[in-house]
Amino acid sequence: MVSQVKTGIYPNETAAHRAALRKRPRISETLIQGFLFFCGALSILVTLGIVYELGKESLLFFTRQQWEETNRTLVDAMNAEQTTFRMTETGMALSVDSSIRLRSEVMTVTDIRGDVVTVARAQQNTVAAPHESGVEIETSRRVTLAEFFTKTEWNPQIGKFGIWALVNATLMTSLTAVAVALPLGLCVAIYLSEYASARVRGVLKPLLEVLAAIPTVVYGYFALTFMTPLLRAIFGVNTVAIYNTASAGIVIGILILPLVSSMAEDSLSAVPQSLRQAAYALGATRLETAVKVVLPAALSGIAAAFIVAASRAIGETMVVAIAAGAGPAFTFNPFQAAETMTGHIVRISGGDLSYDSIDYNSIFAIGLMLFFITLGLNILSQRIVKRFREEYE
Amino acid sequence: MRRTFVVLFILVALVATACGPKATPTAAPVATEAPKATEAPKATDPTPATVVKPVEPQLLPEVNPLEVTGNVVTAGSSTVYPLAERMAERFYDEGFQGQITIDSIGSGAGYERFCKTGETDIANASRAIKDSEKEACAAIGRTPIEFRVGTDALAVVVSQQNTFVTDVTVEELALIFGNTATKWSDVRPEWPAENILRFIPGTDSGTFDYFVEHVFAKDKEPHLTAANTQLSEDDNVLAQGVLGSPYAVGYFGYAYYAENAGTLKALSLNGVVPTAETVEDNSYALARPLFLYSDAKIMQEKPQVAAYINFFLAYVNEEIVDVGYFPASETTLLAAQQAWVAAMQ
Amino acid sequence: MKPRPHKDAIHLGTTGFTPNLSRRHRVGRAWLLVFQAATIVGIVVLTTLLLNIMNGAFGYAAVENKVDPDTLAVDGVPLEDLPQEELTRILQENVSAGLFRRLENDLPFDERARLEVYTLVLERVVEPRVVKQWSLQDSIFRSAQVKAEAARAYPKAELQFKSWLNSQFIRNPQSAKAESAGVRTAILGSLWTVSIAILFAFPIGVGGAIYLEEYAGDNAINRIIHTNINNLAGVPSIIYGILGLAIFVRALEPLTSGALWGVADPTTANGRTILSAGLTLGLLVLPMIIINAREAIRAVPSSLRQASYGIGATRWQTVWYHVLPNALPGILTGTILAISRAMGETAPLVVIGASTFINIDPNGPFSKFTTLPIQIYQWTSRPQDVFRNIAAAAIIVLVLLLLSLNASAVLLRNRFSRRLD
Q1: Is residue B330 less than 8 Å (CB to CB) from chain A?
Q2: What is the gyration radius of the CA atoms in chain C, in angstroms?
Q3: Chain A residue with minimal CA distance to B127?
Q4: Which pLDDT tens digit goes with each residue over C93-121?
């Protein structure tokens, strides 16, 4: 006989009974949960990886001093004490307060009068030395955080590092894209989900998804050879530049359309049928049901679609590289050429520039900046979604 | 594994042919690939072949791709890419059994893989190597050797609707693309007082760099700050831009002009029209060199790399025009061949 | 106190139901038109794009021979009637010594059939090439003008309707000549990389989504993960390339080059392999799969879960038998979009080290590779027009490949997508 235990709740409870009722350790359940957690946490690792890689190189961008030939040389020989010299006439312009280098000696330019340069010698822990005539003058470029974040001109080749020119262009193209894709995509999604028959939906949805797969180069040429001429025909050849952000933005909008329509359609479809029937029962029309009942219920999914699509628009590269031009410019005119952050990154990384130039390092800083911009936008959009989301059940 | 077999077979066959002139076909089974390679010399030459076989007008030993195996890894300029692809294909066509890969990633990244990470055997480049890159190469024990393989002329083009300009001097070119002139009449008074619409390649390209170096004496500022300047990294896109207006002007690789010769017009510089002759004798001012870079140690350790460069230098002039570039002059090519011979010693 | 009606409540006031109703129906119809118009715009754009591509891939082509076969006739005997020895001689005279040596080496000429030698002469000596290609649109609607133009501008050329998309194009490896170029290596490379990407990203993506929706509580870590995933969806693809280069190509080199398994491919000998590329693309599409799967899982009514728990199912059993099957359509949409994205990506693969020219088929995850978009990009940036024609053909191949890859997912999705009542 099993001895009675007083602590039980029920009169005839036995140890065997209790064992059966106790939560059994389920090893497989724990393992699965562990694996699933890993899957979720992987994204954190990816982010850390990205931030680390970009940060490492960005640091180089902000700290290194790069010397560049000016194609000017010393006209006369100079001794170790002399603080003025004459330079040859043609070549890159020098500027006051910049650092120059002759052989291994670094100097700071204090004054320039025509071709006569006054310098402070032996800067940056170098030693003043005599130089013979014909020595090449090198100039340095260095980026400061302040310049990076406050200036609006980006032209690393002539020492201009104001990120806003690129950020502005990115915002212009992606806002245009979002303005095209969101209403259009949402309308398509509502039509497919609430009006179209299952058969039509079954055909149209995958067809539109084909749009997502066409290589973006094709979209780029589509923008340049179809959309730009169209815009020029509408707004006038003199208003619309051949490379412009509007054309690129509209075509990116087309490119992200299937993302919006497909994902939004999914979340609309997932709204329980009972909600619709309830709305109809109250006498709502189809439109009212769709817009006032189904749409708010699916808002979370639609917002997710918007976020994915907008993110894709910001990150899109080839379309802007081809259709928006390769010249960074700070302009709010959508019909002017401007280079986006991604366009700049892809251009520099595939070009003929030296890999250890400051220009090349800049792409990592831009990448990091882009990363933080999308992060900001995401946090913002999540706040908004949280406010407007309506949860049923 | 297979490579060892091939080498083994070659050795066996060489011994066999050395023993008796009528030895082989039955000695080796025909089914596998390796014996085919050994039979090669028989077809053209009864004596046992060696890879090095001096031929008269050339400095280089003749290379027989049938006897070359192994891998050649190359990466670099997208400008050199079409030419390299053509030569690699011909190398295969003539019997090369190994694998050549060419990555079109830009000259800068090409040097990075060659000098910094040391992954590639050959760097394709459309600009000469920079000192800093040479230093990086030295740090991993490589001394880059330059082989000039051809020339890409830059065409300065206007639309065919442009009737007023056909010839410019290099100084005028600096005005046309510089920041002092805005209207065509600022360059030459008899030209119309219309804005100059400029179309130039992206600042990352070797084309841009070369143009700045030769027209603006390396000073990028006037070029980049000129009004109405549109940049694009794609030469096809630039051509589209220039087509748009009679007052547009641009410059890009000659091959892109040649394709649009029906609608575009190439300007002559100082009275010199870009042709094979003027580019070759350097009288046309804007001719940009194309290079391969390798290293003596790699070439000696990997005979296939040496063979590929040898083959490239030997036959590049037969293919280059078809690809759209201009041949390097006899003397430059000879210099490249000499560099090859020097590297192999 | 009378409760205030909800702002969206349908008013059934004394003003009458009927006149209001007809207005509401009119508005409904108007909006239906808007919705339909939007859908039509989408389809029109898709069609325009596809037509644009087709325009390049098909059309009349003027084909000119590099060497006129008539000039090859010997003593008045036309080329096609020449005996084998003559044909061999012509071949020897007109092709490079190296090529002749290779051909002789493959199979001696006296052992070859006459027809074979004749074909070789046609291919290598006569060498027909496309000198001008007209668009499909012109070929159909202006065929008379095209023919006239061809006769005028290319009197020696033969005008033929050319489909750049043909079986030879799919079977051939890469080539520097547009006429003989093919995409076999690129198709195989694309299939390998995309398969690896999906095999990697699908289970992890769905797993992550399940964790976040079914297991994770609403705490700081999980909120960070959530924001983070959304954010990763917006990181430009080239940055994934930089990351992949650092992690898969460099840090995990023994793994991705196959050296650890002893199966390293001597042609790569470093981490620039299909595996690295596939994993990088996997990371790239992961956020998209997770976001879609999360939304799909969230849309499964909690009554289903409660019912499942009610009959004693464990959490995993509930997820596996009830939540996942109902969430499948949404998960598959994410997968379809992910496959599409991975298939069309260029920039990260260039950083990872996809070759632009390689004409040996990849034979496993540790091979070097190239992919279709890389070829397409490369061809479109060439000066010669014919390369844009083969780029167009390659795009069609890409789209067809994608449709067939997606087909199973689409079918599954259609099967499972039923409204939850």
Answers
A1: no
A2: 30
A3: A352
A4: 888 888 888 888 888 888 888 888 888 88
pLDDT digits (tens, 9 = 90+) for B205-219: 888 888 988 888 878
Buried b (16+ CB within 10 A) or exposed e, B81-117: bbbbbbbbbbbbbbbbbbbbbbbbbbbbbbbbbbbbe
Distance from C-alpha of A272 to C-alpha of A284, rounded to nearest angstrom: 17
Q: Which chains touch B (3 or more CB pairs under 8 A)?
A: A, C
Task: Write down the pLDDT at residue A391.
Answer: 64
Instruction: Check residue B272 and report its DSSP letter.
Output: B
Q: How many CB atoms lie within 10 A of CB C309?
A: 14
Between A40-54, A88-102, B254-268, the lowest mean confidence (pLDDT) is in A88-102
pLDDT of residue A142: 74
Q: Is the pLDDT of residue C421 over 80?
A: no
- The continuous run of DSSP H or E covering B313 comes out as helix B303-323
User: Which residues fall within 8 angstroms of residue C148, CB to CB, at 6 or more apart?
Assistant: none
The alpha-carbon gap from A215 to the nearest alpha carbon of chain C, in Å, equals 5
Q: What local confidence, expressed as pLDDT, does residue B1 receive?
A: 41
**Chain A residue nearest residue C204, CA to CA:** A39
Cβ atoms A250, A173 nearer than 8 A:
no
Averaged over B160-170, what is the pLDDT? 91
Window 304-343 of A, Cβ < 8 Å to C: 304, 307-308, 310-312, 314-318, 341-342
Segment A57-78 shows an average pLDDT of 80
Nearest-CA distance A153 → chain C (Å) = 22
Q: Which of B106, B217, B218 sits opposite A351 (nearest CB)?
A: B106
Q: What is the mean pLDDT of residues C358-381?
A: 86
Q: What is the pLDDT, as a whole number, of residue A30?
A: 87
> Which chain B residues have a beta carbon less than 8 Å from that of C105?
36-37, 39-40, 43, 66, 95
Q: Do A214 and C233 touch (CB under 8 A)?
A: no
For the ranges A49-63, B34-48, B308-322, C32-46, the lowest mean pLDDT is seen at B34-48
Q: Which of B95, B103, B253 sits opposite C383 (nearest CB)?
A: B253
The verdict on a CB contact (< 8 Å) between C359 and B92 is: yes
Pairwise CA distance, residues C258 & C128, whole Å: 44
ipTM confidence score:
0.81
CB < 8 Å from B in window 350-389 of C: 350, 353-360, 368, 378, 380-385
Work out the minimum CA distance from C94 to partner chain B, whole angstroms. 13
Q: Rounded mean pLDDT of C346-358?
A: 84
What residues contact residue A378 under an 8 Å CB cut-off, 6+ apart?
A: A307, A311, C227, C230, C231, C234
Contact call for B232 and A237, based on CB within 8 A: no
SS (H, E, C) chain C: CCCCCCCCCCCCCCCCCHHHHHHHHHHHHHHHHHHHHHHHHHHHHHHHHHHHHHHHHEEEEEEEECCCHHHHCECCECHHHCCHHHHHHHHHHHCCHHHHHHHHHHCCHHHCCHHHHHHHHHHHHHCEEEEEECCHHHHHHCHHHHHHHHHHHCCCCEEEEEECCCHHHHHCCCCCCHHHCCCHHHHHHHHHHHHHHHHHHHHHHHHHHHHHHHHCCCCHHHHHHHHHHHHHCCCCHHHHHHHHHHHHHHHCHHHHCCHHHCCCCCCCCCCCCHHHHHHHHHHHHHHHHHHHHHHHHHCCCHHHHHHHHHCCCCHHHHHHHHHHHHHHHHHHHHHHHHHHHHHHCCHHHHHHCCCCECCCCCCCCCCCCCCHHHHHHHHHCCCCHHHHHHHHHHHHHHHHHHHHHHHHHHHHHHHHCCCCC
Q: How far is C92 from chain B (nearest CA, A)?
A: 12
